[in-house]
Amino acid sequence: MLEGPAAKPLVGKRALVTAGPTFEPIDPVRGITNRSSGKQGFAIAEALARLGAEVTLIAGPVFLPTPPGVKRVDVETARQMLAASQAALPADVGVFVAAVADWRVDEAFGAKLKKEKGGPPALTFVENPDILATLSASGPQRPKLVVGFAAETDHVEEHARAKLARKGCDWIIANDVTQPGVMGGGENAVLLVTKDKTERWDRAAKDAVAAQIAARIAQALA
Ligand code: CTP
Ligand code: CA
């Protein structure tokens, strides 16, 4: 085990991590959401804190304990997650792990929709803000290192590389969610996609993947 400053290379650095799903209301009792346990994002927040970073974890609705030493901000919608992320700036690194709902109902109903009122409602969707792309383009406020995630079911590297360009981030950590045990499970097998290369990491527990990501972040910020 390392001790002293070498064990805590992120002392004095600020990190922002988004995690979990967002929940977009349809009416007071219904909504749309994404599948995300929040485990990978919480593990990354914990690993960054363990290396000494001052971490703000912006969490969608998940049932997970707050990692030790981490400041947690709970949110529900994508728009709240964006506002909380902007409020957490300045940061040296932003890690955007959340499974943000791409769309929301343009105007949520104030009262519960009733079944007997003439069949299924016609819902109109509008696109949510892209938190990762917005923070990547935040000018002087932009974290020095911006890391996005991509959960893909096919053409993983190709989609990840396209996202890296489209979102203006520095790294994309991509995973194939069709692999057994990834979605909601304890393991992850990821690709680290940067502007000039792709690394394929061995399948490992989400905690181990998080520790590896935190170590790479510490290296990049050194
Ligand atoms: N992301 C975000 N805000 C959004 C959508 C996505 O911050 N409104 C972030 C995610 O947290 C992740 C990355 O962008 O870090 C990629 O998310 P993903 O859903 O894979 O990308 P999309 O651009 O939404 O593309 P897709 O059509 O594949 O869902
Ligand atoms: Ca999406």
UniProtKB/TrEMBL annotation:
<keyword id="KW-0812">Transmembrane</keyword>
<keyword id="KW-0472">Membrane</keyword>
<keyword id="KW-0436">Ligase</keyword>
<feature type="domain" description="DNA/pantothenate metabolism flavoprotein C-terminal">
    <location>
        <begin position="10"/>
        <end position="219"/>
    </location>
</feature>
<dbReference type="GO" id="GO:0016874">
    <property type="term" value="F:ligase activity"/>
</dbReference>
<feature type="binding site">
    <location>
        <position position="149"/>
    </location>
    <ligand>
        <name>CTP</name>
    </ligand>
</feature>
<feature type="binding site">
    <location>
        <begin position="129"/>
        <end position="132"/>
    </location>
    <ligand>
        <name>CTP</name>
    </ligand>
</feature>
<comment type="function">
    <text>Catalyzes two sequential steps in the biosynthesis of coenzyme A. In the first step cysteine is conjugated to 4'-phosphopantothenate to form 4-phosphopantothenoylcysteine. In the second step the latter compound is decarboxylated to form 4'-phosphopantotheine.</text>
</comment>
<comment type="similarity">
    <text>In the C-terminal section; belongs to the PPC synthetase family.</text>
</comment>
<comment type="similarity">
    <text>In the N-terminal section; belongs to the HFCD (homo-oligomeric flavin containing Cys decarboxylase) superfamily.</text>
</comment>
<feature type="region of interest" description="Phosphopantothenate--cysteine ligase">
    <location>
        <begin position="15"/>
        <end position="222"/>
    </location>
</feature>
<keyword id="KW-0479">Metal-binding</keyword>
<keyword id="KW-0288">FMN</keyword>
<keyword id="KW-1133">Transmembrane helix</keyword>
<comment type="pathway">
    <text>Cofactor biosynthesis; coenzyme A biosynthesis; CoA from (R)-pantothenate: step 2/5.</text>
</comment>
<keyword id="KW-0460">Magnesium</keyword>
<feature type="binding site">
    <location>
        <position position="163"/>
    </location>
    <ligand>
        <name>CTP</name>
    </ligand>
</feature>
<keyword id="KW-0210">Decarboxylase</keyword>
<keyword id="KW-0456">Lyase</keyword>
<keyword id="KW-0511">Multifunctional enzyme</keyword>
<comment type="pathway">
    <text>Cofactor biosynthesis; coenzyme A biosynthesis; CoA from (R)-pantothenate: step 3/5.</text>
</comment>
<feature type="binding site">
    <location>
        <position position="112"/>
    </location>
    <ligand>
        <name>CTP</name>
    </ligand>
</feature>
<comment type="function">
    <text>Catalyzes two steps in the biosynthesis of coenzyme A. In the first step cysteine is conjugated to 4'-phosphopantothenate to form 4-phosphopantothenoylcysteine, in the latter compound is decarboxylated to form 4'-phosphopantotheine.</text>
</comment>
<keyword id="KW-0285">Flavoprotein</keyword>
<feature type="binding site">
    <location>
        <position position="167"/>
    </location>
    <ligand>
        <name>CTP</name>
    </ligand>
</feature>
<feature type="binding site">
    <location>
        <position position="102"/>
    </location>
    <ligand>
        <name>CTP</name>
    </ligand>
</feature>
<protein>
    <recommendedName>
        <fullName>Coenzyme A biosynthesis bifunctional protein CoaBC</fullName>
        <ecNumber>4.1.1.36</ecNumber>
        <ecNumber>6.3.2.5</ecNumber>
    </recommendedName>
</protein>
